[in-house]
Amino acid sequence: MKLTERIFGELNGRKVKAYTIENERGLDITAIEYGCTITEIKVPDLNGKKENIVLGFDTLEEYIQYSPYFGCVIGRNAGRLGQATFEMDGIPYQLEKNDGENNLHSGSNGFHHVIWNSVIEQKEDEISILFSYMSRDGEEGFPGNLDVKVVYTLTNDNELIISYHAKSDKRTIVNLTNHSYFNLSGNLKKTILNHELTIDSEGFLELDDTLIPTGKIIPVEGTSFDFRSSHPVIQGIMSEHPQTKIVGGGIDHPYLLKHQHSPDIILLDKESGRKLEIETEEPAVVFYTGNMLENTFAIRGKQSEKHLGLCLETQKLPNQIQDIRLEKDQAYTSKTKYLFS
Ligand code: FUC
Known about the structure:
Layout: E1 2-11, E2 14-22, E3 28-32, E4 38-44, E5 50-52, H1 60-65, E6 73-74, E7 80-81, E8 85-88, E9 91-94, E10 103-104, E11 117-122, E12 126-135, E13 146-155, E14 159-168, E15 172-173, E16 177-178, E17 181-182, E18 196-199, E19 201-207, E20 213-219, E21 231-232, H2 234-237, H3 242-246, E22 252-257, E23 265-269, E24 274-280, E25 284-288, E26 298-299, E27 302-303, E28 310-315, H4 321-324, E29 325-326, E30 332-340
Antiparallel strand pairs: 1-2, 2-3, 3-4, 4-5, 6-16, 7-10, 8-9, 11-12, 12-13, 13-14, 14-30, 15-29, 17-28, 18-21, 18-23, 19-20, 19-22, 22-25, 23-24, 24-30, 25-28, 26-27
The chain binds alpha-L-fucopyranose.
Alpha-L-fucopyranose (FUC) binds at residues 68-69, 211, 252, 286, 288, 292, 311, 313.
């Protein structure tokens, strides 16, 4: 296995490192200290042609300027919080309203927009990047000093393992995820509409018209949200279901995972022959079909467009405070594995 390190950019006098890990099977991953962002994952297609399968940029400036949360870690709270507020122990906490009246992905200076520290750990068959960040009490409105670690490990078995660890000195809320937009066609040749998907889920959360979960679980049975057996993503997108319309034409919903089958999620692009299998400890995944991707900027020379990438954000159920509460000194740990073939 091979590791290379370089300077990706500079922000407020601080150099931001980029690491590329390459395994012996021709897979490589690049991640930077800004937002723990995965900027590239290169995977061979069925003819052995190595191409990038995630949306990302080559410069730090683009991540700062556009960033539809490409490849980053979201925290300390993933998803939307209604009215940008939550209550714990009778105390209301007010966060930034950065999505209408709601808070999205913790605010504009969430974990995706900060510089993390990093250390490398090398073993015979795997290399890990250990990112760490100290989120101060009151940062973005959240209580408690939160010590966070996110580890990206690439193995010689073509697995990317992301593990999350956090501890707070006060009761707080934590829900961490990675926000990579996948497009298995390679170098964004096509949209994700013909990717085939399986999600081991029987129900998803209903959203209100500001995309906040209402608390109701809608069974997938008989709806265009049913991905229990593999079929093209476009069938979920081109639907008259009112929940499809609410999110701007597509899917942007938390699915409850059954954990009956392994892996929990399978994404396949028959044309390139690339497959991604996801196995997670998390109870849910937010499946987002890139409905709000705008065509106002370019991604490595390719014009951005709706449905150019899709996200599979493994996490706890968003906006459910009782599920995302972290007690003082309690260890938060979670792991998601991505297998590429
Ligand atoms: C996902 C979605 C949101 C938002 C964001 C960029 O997490 O749930 O709707 O558009 O990504």
